[in-house]
């Protein structure tokens, strides 16, 4: 069933999951998924399946393909997907590497920020202990964000997957997707050497056909010239639609970024008037830590699938 044959897509996107107009789409997708050997064992609840229908504008065939790809990707990338517990990436989170803005843009999209570069590996702020696998482990807090000597690119990407699994539960995010800002200030060769063609393909898969979120925009700021070879590895795997949504702002982002994202929601560090980037990162880290049990359940079940639709982070 294709949405255009019977219903208006925008109308469908605005309906609750228990609407009688959505029921035929859910029923058909569940029936087709149950017939697929690779995914028939998943917990095919309505709140789980609706994500894939929303992501593919209620085209059941495309939603089924996305669901199959999602499961396949998670099975084939255990270095990223097998352990989604926040404690596995606590160092990155506590370094204010990543945050989700409190407010959405005018189109209702979630705004994610990743600070991929800047770090000082010789200096650390303090040490702290985290309860992990029945014991307390000691972690160092480094000044900065991603220290490539401490965290692999796979761990960095795991943070992105953790956030994706949390925000995909939000009904408004399912409808309106996300925009991501990647701050590459002080990106260096040590970062670049971590990105190989295999990982580049895995990253592109999530952006295109292996995760039920609509990517509305990707904004790169402070990108150095030697980031281009890394981007060149990823670009061939991206469809034209995604390529057209990638914007490189350079160091003059304060003027151009607000053309895509309202100043009222952006942190002051990025030319806006919203909460500071440190506040944003700390708030989101706290929310991630509160979601430990849910994320742990996803680590156990590599196929994903849950009965919870709601999110407390709104």
TrEMBL record:
Signal peptide: none annotated. SMART domains: CRAL_TRIO_N, SEC14. Keywords: Lipid-binding. Gene3D superfamilies: Alpha-tocopherol transfer (1.20.5.1200), CRAL-TRIO lipid binding domain (3.40.525.10), N-terminal domain of phosphatidylinositol transfer protein sec14p (1.10.8.20). Residues 89-278 form the CRAL-TRIO domain. GO terms for molecular function: lipid transfer activity; phosphatidylinositol bisphosphate binding; vitamin E binding. GO terms for biological process: vitamin E metabolic process; vitamin transport. InterPro entries: CRAL-TRIO_dom (IPR001251), CRAL-TRIO_dom_sf (IPR036865), CRAL/TRIO_N_dom (IPR011074), CRAL/TRIO_N_dom_sf (IPR036273). GO terms for cellular component: late endosome; membrane. Pfam families: CRAL_TRIO (PF00650), CRAL_TRIO_N (PF03765). This is Tocopherol (alpha) transfer protein. It comes from Cyprinus carpio.
């Amino acid at each position: 069933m294709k949405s255009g044959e019977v219903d208006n897509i925008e109308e469908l996107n605005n309906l609750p999951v228990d609407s009688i107009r959505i029921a035929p789409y859910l029923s058909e997708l569940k029936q087709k998924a149950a017939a697929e050997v690779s995914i028939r064992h998943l917990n095919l609840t309505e709140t789980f399946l609706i994500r894939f229908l929303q992501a593919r504008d209620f085209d059941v065939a495309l939603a089924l393909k996305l669901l199959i790809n999602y499961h396949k990707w998670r099975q084939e990338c255990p270095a990223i997907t097998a352990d989604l517990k926040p404690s596995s990436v606590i160092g990155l989170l506590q370094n204010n590497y990543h945050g989700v803005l409190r407010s959405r843009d005018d189109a209702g999209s979630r705004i994610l920020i990743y600070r991929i570069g800047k770090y000082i590996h010789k200096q650390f702020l303090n040490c702290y202990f985290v309860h992990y696998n029945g014991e307390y482990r000691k972690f160092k807090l480094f000044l900065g964000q991603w220290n490539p000597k401490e965290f692999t690119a796979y761990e960095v990407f795991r943070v992105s997957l953790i956030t994706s699994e949390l925000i995909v539960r939000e009904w408004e995010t399912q409808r309106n997707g996300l925009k991501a800002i990647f701050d590459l200030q002080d990106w260096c060769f040590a970062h670049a050497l971590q990105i190989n063609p295999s990982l580049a393909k895995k990253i592109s898969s999530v952006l295109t056909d292996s995760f039920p979120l609509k990517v509305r925009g990707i904004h790169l700021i402070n990108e150095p010239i030697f980031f281009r070879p890394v981007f060149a590895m990823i670009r061939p795997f991206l469809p034209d639609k995604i390529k057209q949504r990638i914007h490189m702002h350079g160091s003059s982002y304060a003027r151009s970024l607000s053309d895509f994202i309202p100043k009222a929601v952006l942190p002051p560090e990025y030319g806006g008037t919203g909460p500071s980037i440190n506040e944003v990162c700390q708030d989101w880290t706290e929310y991630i830590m509160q979601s430990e049990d849910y994320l742990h359940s996803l680590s156990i079940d590599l196929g994903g699938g849950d009965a919870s639709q709601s999110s407390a982070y709104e």
